[in-house]
Design goal:
The protein has 4 helices and 4 strands; from the N terminus they run ββαβααβα. The chain is α+β, with helices and mostly antiparallel strands and about 130 residues long. The protein has one domain. It has a two-stranded antiparallel ribbon with strand order 1-2. Strands 3-4 form a two-stranded parallel sheet. Helix 1 packs across helix 2. This is Copia protein. It comes from Trifolium medium.
């Protein structure tokens, strides 16, 4: 079973997020990361356009952080089709900036897997979340 997840931040706060079980089994982790990157890009662009319509801000380039270098490389491959063409077109049009991030700072991992307590607490703090005190 594979879980796809992404978080969209506005400023330093979570603005939108998604975590769901994948219906289609991907043949590699690269494909899974890439599929999730496509979903996140669509959501982020929709939210950016909504905010522009509401006069909350100008439409900005979406910065997408991936912890998979192979998924980033795949998005730049000219022979790629389908979802990969979508992301490549978004990058070529200046609408998307794919950047690599280390796995230990990938906030979406909170939504996809069981983490060690120290990793969980670290990512939780980066989201600005605090534990409720008794």
């Amino acid at each position: 079973m594979s879980i796809a997840a992404f978080e969209i931040m506005y400023g330093n706060a979570p603005f939108s997020w998604c975590s769901k079980k994948e219906v289609v089994v991907e043949l590699s982790s690269c494909e899974g990361e890439y599929t999730t990157a496509s979903m996140a890009t669509c959501e982020a662009q929709w939210l950016s356009m909504l905010m522009q319509e509401l006069s909350l801000r100008e439409y900005d380039k979406v910065r997408l952080l991936l912890d998979s270098k192979s998924a980033i490389d795949f998005s730049k491959h000219l022979a790629a089709r389908g979802r990969s063409k979508f992301l490549r077109d978004q990058m070529n049009n200046g609408m998307l900036d794919l950047q690599h991030c280390k796995t230990n700072v990938q906030l979406a991992d909170l939504l996809t897997k069981a983490l060690k307590t120290s990793s969980f607490e670290d990512l939780k703090m980066k989201l600005g979340m605090n534990s409720a005190s008794n």
